[in-house]
Amino acid sequence: MTEASDTGPPKPGHVRLLKIAVVTMGILILAGFGAVVLRIVHLASNLSQVAPTAGNIELRARLALPPGAVIRLMALSGDRLALHYDAPEGAGIAVVNISTGAVVSRLGIVPEAPSR
């Protein structure tokens, strides 16, 4: 029979290295967790600089809708925003370039005349 070479108690030098490795990894885990907590606190305390509030939103453009119009749906694609609105005169869609604030196009939605 062959005998295993790693039989018996571990050598004191190996135990000491294992203890150092475990303590070092524990310190690294605590330091990493502390860094994450500090970053969260930092971002939460400077939230007004990160997220816009009512006081620091820049008004780029105004979209004139018919009187009494109510926006029913908005859709964003790239730098274009499509607004579907209902007004007393009828429904419509306005397409706005959000980079420049310019109205790209307006579409009126009218019911089709019944065919005879």
If you had to describe this structure to a student in words, what would you say it looks like?
With 116 residues, this protein is an alpha+beta fold. Among the domains are: 12-47; 70-109. Helix content is 33%, strand content 27%. Strands 1-2-3-4 form a 4-stranded antiparallel beta sheet, with no helix packed on it. Strand 2 (80-87) and strand 3 (90-97) form a beta hairpin. The longest helix has 34 residues, at 12-45. It is elongated, with a radius of gyration of 33 Å. The model has no long low-confidence stretch (mean pLDDT 85).
Key phrases:
116 residues, alpha+beta, 2 helices
- Uncertain spans, ≥5 residues at pLDDT below 50? none
Determine the mean pLDDT.
85
Compute the separation of the termini in Å: 102 Å
- From the helix content, strand content and strand pairing, which structural class follows? alpha+beta
What is the fold's blueprint, element by element?
Elements: H1 12-45, H2 47-50, E1 70-77, E2 80-87, E3 90-97, E4 103-109
Offer a concise description of the structure.
The protein is an alpha+beta fold.
